[in-house]
Amino acid sequence: MLNLLIPRLQVATIYDIDLDGLAASGIRGIITDLDNTLVGARDPDATPELIDWLENVKRRGFQVVIVSNNNLARVQAFASPIRVPFIHSARKPTNAAFRKALQLMKLRAEEACVIGDQMMTDVLGGNRMGLFTILVTPISPQDEGFFTKAVNRRLERAALYWMRK
Fold first, then answer.
1. Residues whose CB is less than 8 angstroms from the CB of residue 124 and which lie 6 or more positions away in sequence, other chains included
2. Tens digit of each residue's pLDDT (9 = 90 or more) over 103-155
3. Does residue 58 carry a pLDDT above 70?
4. Prior bond to 48 cis, omega within 30?
5. CA-CA-CA-CA torsion sign (145, 74, 28, 140)
6. Does pTM surpass 0.85?
7. Which of 127, 137, 133, 117 is nearest to 9 (CA)?
8. Which CATH class is domain 2-164?
9. In the chain, which residue ranges form alpha helices assigned H by DSSP?
């Protein structure tokens, strides 16, 4: 079970991801979390840096889908202006939203990666589906919701402790 919490790659930010390396390994699609992965949890809009990164990703031939546990209003308000398809209320780490994202991109699991800031949702869900998982450092952990702080981050710390042993 603990192996399912280990990402294939860990980076500080999305900007540190080697896109050429992903493409060389056969990755053609990116499933990404929103809050604390692309922008801070309370940031309503994409930053100019993020918009440039997304344009670069698309120019390189990657497809992108945002998969978020957040509600429709939050995800739609963020994703629509930057024209990125999205799945809201995803219930990660369950498989349904990951499957739906793969269907939207018309890709198999081995052709996509998941980028997220949480081991208990993004990494666990992605690994269970056979996706290449990338864990980023949360952008603004002080703005995380109660459940993330009280439950997920505590479970992550416990898992990391046991993995180090």
1. 4, 5, 92, 93
2. 999 999 999 999 999 998 999 999 999 999 999 999 976 565 555 555 555 66
3. yes
4. no
5. negative
6. yes
7. 133
8. alpha beta
9. 19-24, 48-59, 72-79, 96-105, 124-129, 146-147, 153-164
